[in-house]
Write a structure and sequence with these properties.
Blueprint lengths: L6 E3 L4 H11 L3 E4 L3 H8 L7 E4 L9 E4 L2 E5 L4 H6 L3 H4 L1 H7 L5 H4 L4 H7 L5 H9 L2 E6 L2 E6 H4 E3 L2 E2 L6 E8 L5 E8 L9 E8 L2 E7 L6 E6 L3 H15 L9 H21 L2
Parallel strand pairs: 1-3, 2-3
Antiparallel strand pairs: 4-5, 5-10, 6-7, 6-10, 8-9, 11-12, 12-13, 13-14
Helix pairs in contact: 5-8, 10-11
Length: about 270
């Protein structure tokens, strides 16, 4: 299919982007990398009257450490973040997750913020943001607001951005000394969206995990310090709580089993990395 007719805008700065959003509201959509966006617009799943391309705005292509967070601008690609020299030290969980994100070609176009905005339940970067308790910075002509990942991701392919807002940046907390991290997923092929993905953060003997691919958004659960037997019981209860759906990729039963198996494996690795 071909997209419905739309006007293409290529603003010179953020102020022009915000002016366009204030003027067009629901009729406008922002495009950064365009990977998910182009598929959706070609299949007419979205039909904006105005497309605002921010991919060339260098003022949005930044990675910076600020106030205990790593801030990543809206035009920063996944490849830029993967190549950032401090990623293994500052964002070890994200570094692990990025190994599963697409391929070299897609990472060179796809943006970090775009992936989080798209809110695909099986996507690795929204899962990482939720598990780490990250934040999303939104801007409009009215000002700026900051939402927690749990507030921003509200459902499948749905987020809490207002029509006149743009995602300016996302914030991942900087890793602390004494924390351990791990990330595992099962997908049909490397680079595909996960059937189930699990991220884990351990601090001392306390641990919490995030699970993607089974609910309509990443689900985070704190387990505290548990023995192996109690952990198996907790993961089993968590898997049944998530339930999951059957589709062409996997049965709900298989997804629940992945939560149990990958959960145990990922938590064990995170504790070993403390």
């Amino acid at each position: 299919m071909k997209p419905a007719k739309f006007d293409y805008l290529n603003p010179d700065n953020i102020d022009q982007v915000l002016d366009c959003l204030a003027e067009y509201n629901d009729d406008a959509r922002i495009m950064a990398g365009g990977l998910s966006f182009m598929a959706m617009i070609n299949f007419r799943l979205i039909q904006p009257k105005v497309v605002i391309d921010i991919s060339r705005l260098t003022e949005l292509a930044f990675i910076r450490v600020k106030g205990g967070f790593v801030e990543i601008g809206a035009a920063t690609t996944q490849a830029d973040l993967k190549a950032w020299p401090d990623i293994d030290q500052k964002l070890p969980l994200v570094a692990l997750a990025l190994r599963h994100v697409g391929h070299f070609q897609t990472r060179s176009r796809g943006t970090v913020c775009g992936s989080i905005c798209h809110a695909e339940p099986s996507s690795e970067l929204p899962l990482s943001l939720a598990t780490l308790g990250g934040e999303v910075i939104l801007r409009s002509k009215k000002g700026e607001r900051v939402l927690k990942a749990s507030e921003f991701q509200i459902g499948m392919l749905a987020n809490a951005r207002h029509p006149d807002e743009m995602v300016y940046a996302v914030r991942f907390p900087v890793a602390k000394k004494g924390q351990g991290f791990a990330f595992n997923e099962i997908a049909e092929r490397h680079g595909d969206f996960a059937i189930v993905a699990v991220a884990a953060v351990a601090e001392g003997n306390d641990v919490h995990i995030g699970v993607g691919g089974i609910a309509d958004r990443p689900t985070v659960r704190k387990f505290g310090a548990l023995t192996n037997e109690k952990l198996s019981e907790a993961l089993n209860a968590f898997a049944w709580e998530l339930r999951g759906d059957t589709d062409i990729h996997a049965t709900a039963q298989y997804r629940r089993q992945l939560v149990r198996h990958l959960g145990q494996k990922t938590i064990t690795e995170a504790l070993a990395n403390v």
